[in-house]
Design brief:
This protein is α/β, with parallel strands linked by helices and about 400 residues long. The protein contains 14 helices and 13 strands. Bound molecules: pyridoxal-5'-phosphate.
Length: about 400
């Protein structure tokens, strides 16, 4: 990196600016996905049906889990899991403020109380010690989020949950595929929610999946994702279906569609290849950024292998005089897209009002948020793109060195 000596602003910016905008993420859709969607459109069966069933089978097979239920989003998946576990008013669910709004909203949908526990000091996953402080006899669920795809300490969290008979439900929106002590995320907790949103590791456009080894829970979720109707109600308009169905419980309209499942069938074929690519790109980022003054490179997760959904660095304010927001602007000027994952729940006005929390309440989450910056990472990104991002970042850090 020696060639990037301090230069005057304009010259330097011209030096590291990309010719074309490099986004934070770009989904990859192949010809197979396109052909399968066209096939679905021509088949006459557009919504929940045979392709969704096939997708579920393939998803469960890929993870090695007994049951996978496909739904309309990860938000819906979380809500359905909590609902099927009977979580409601008077119950408490412990989660971390360092997450996307969905996690918190899905708990509020049930009428249960959201209890926030701060993150670890050096990584934005929930801190088991903080969970213990929040635990009480009303705790029904502990809901950890594997931020960026790095697994939380699930053994420790399960032990804590057992002391009060609570269930562990995982927000694994980022953790496809990820491993905790050699076991796949999605096969460990009572139930796990995955996201297939356009920005996630694999996508169906919009979509989510619940995985569980609990047959009764899976069946309840299967029913409640489609109005609480009896099992094969989706077939009622087909040649083998019957017009008769029963609504046996309160349900929701949270089903996946066959159009989405058609995309997912082929995205699943790409899961391991995409993952290897992410691991390689992260390795290169690490090589180029480790030791760069002002940049805090994330350490590999201590309990397993990350899905590397995000490559989020920290900006060290004791070394450089610019803040995270300024780095975002300067990277943008170099044609590089970035983002921040996440603005914690206790910084949002709605949750401050509803949960009665304030910005000072969770110092680790707030500090990590304040310094965090997510760099571009997606499987079709070139190694040269990673080098360009690193060059730009090195220049910015050198210009603002204290
Ligand atoms: C994306 C995301 C969700 C929501 O996923 P949807 O499929 O869009 O509902 C939930 N939790 C986290 C941590 C996410 O990043």
């Amino acid at each position: 990196m020696g060639e990037y000596k301090h230069q005057s602003g304009d010259e330097a910016a011209a030096d590291t600016r990309l010719a074309e905008f490099l986004p934070l993420h770009r989904p990859f859709i192949g010809e197979e996905e396109i052909a399968e969607v066209v096939d679905t459109l021509r088949s006459g069966w557009l919504t929940l049906g045979p392709k969704t069933a096939l997708f579920e089978e393939k998803f469960a097979g890929a993870l090695g889990v007994d049951h996978a239920v496909a739904v309309s989003s990860c938000t819906a998946a979380l809500h359905l899991i909590l609902d099927a576990l009977g979580v409601g008013p008077g119950d408490e669910v412990i989660t971390s403020p360092y997450t996307f709004t969905s996690t918190i909203a899905s708990i509020l949908y049930t009428g249960a109380k959201v209890v926030l526990a701060d993150t670890l000091a050096d990584y934005p996953n929930i801190d088991p010690h903080e969970i213990e402080r929040c635990l009480c006899e009303r705790t029904r669920v502990i809901l950890p989020i594997h931020i960026g795809g790095a697994p939380c300490d699930l053994d420790r969290i399960s032990e804590i949950a057992e002391t009060v008979g609570a269930a562990v439900v995982e927000d694994a929106a980022h953790a496809l595929p990820a491993w905790y002590k050699g076991r796949r995320i999605g096969t460990i907790g009572r139930a796990t929610a995955f996201s297939l949103y356009a920005g996630k590791n694999i996508t169906t456009g919009e979509g989510g999946v619940v995985t569980t080894s609990d047959a009764v829970l899976a069946e309840t979720i299967r029913k409640r994702r489609l109005h609480g109707m009896s099992r094969d109600a989706w077939r009622r308009y087909s040649a083998v279906g019957s017009w008769y169905y029963e609504v046996t419980e309160r349900g929701f309209k949270y089903n996946m569609t066959d159009i989405n499942a058609a995309i997912g069938l082929h995205q699943l074929d790409r899961l391991e290849g995409f993952h290897r690519r992410r691991v390689n790109l992260v390795g290169l980022y690490r090589e180029l950024l480790e030791g760069v003054a002002g940049v805090i490179v994330p350490s590999p997760p201590p309990y397993g292998d990350s899905a590397w959904h995000l490559f989020a660095i920290g900006i060290d304010g004791s070394v450089v005089s610019c803040d995270r927001g300024q780095v975002i602007e300067e990277l943008r000027a170099d044609n590089i897209g970035t983002s921040v994952h996440f603005i914690p729940a206790h910084h949002h006005p709605h949750y401050q009002a509803v949960l009665g929390c304030k910005e000072a309440d969770f110092p680790n989450a707030s500090r990590l948020y304040g310094a965090s910056l997510t760099l571009p990472l997606f499987p079709t990104m070139e190694e040269e793109d990673v080098r360009c991002v690193a060059r730009s970042l090195v220049r910015i850090m050198q210009e603002h060195r204290r």
